[in-house]
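Structure, all two chains, one model.
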Amino acid sequence: MNGELIVFFILALVAIGSGILMLNLTKVVHMVIALVFTFLSIAGLYVMLSAEFLAFVQILIYSGAITIIMLFGIMLTRHSDRTESKIGVPRTVLVLGGIVAFFLVMFFQINDLSFGEQATVLHVDNTEKIGVELYSKFVIPFELTSVLLLVALVGAIVLAKRDDEEEAKDNE
Amino acid sequence: MSSVPLSVYLVLALILFCIGLFGALTKRNAVIVLISIELMLNAVNINLVAFAKYGINPGITGQIFSLFTITVAAAEAAVGLAILIALYRNRKTVNVDEMDIMKH
């Protein structure tokens, strides 16, 4: 057993353990904090897969931005900080059965999947390669992404803004 | 050179996807449902990056695909949260099983 395998198992253990913890905790804020550890260990896995730029993006966006925005959502809407009165047992069992069946089917398909050892040099100048590829081959999807982000920005503001009538009613 | 095979990454991504799916289908708080969906998208990203290194045709394209996925996921989280806040203002609830106006 060499070092790479040990690092992989530690990261995988943290990721899966935090995921399970997320399912079992009762307070909503604790669930989100548990998922931060999953996101961080996924960033570690990206480094192992020679995707350093993606690892930084993962830490910035998932562990930073999305976690904070979810915490904002919890703080702004909290009426009771516990997830009380869970969904009924029959439905949980049904969902669990379906997911276990899905897991088994996929597991037996991918268990012995291997395309042989492919030696690549992805980790050399990783960010530069991504930039060159993004601005040469993927220019149009890149520009479309900017439109998507603009639409999401405007849409989020419009949705979360209070109606004018409502505001007028409150001011009276 | 490397000792961690492709299938191990795929199995890890599958486990994370199943955790996210279970959370999205059984939790009542809508914020937790949203963040479970983020976990599922993250599992997909692991698959893309793993195939970018160990796939049949290795290259940087898989990593670029995951960049686009991360962008779309961030936009989805922002819009989802805005919908949630608008709903909370009108209905005073964030539980997904009480969001049933269109059912009746």
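The mean pLDDT of chain B is 87.
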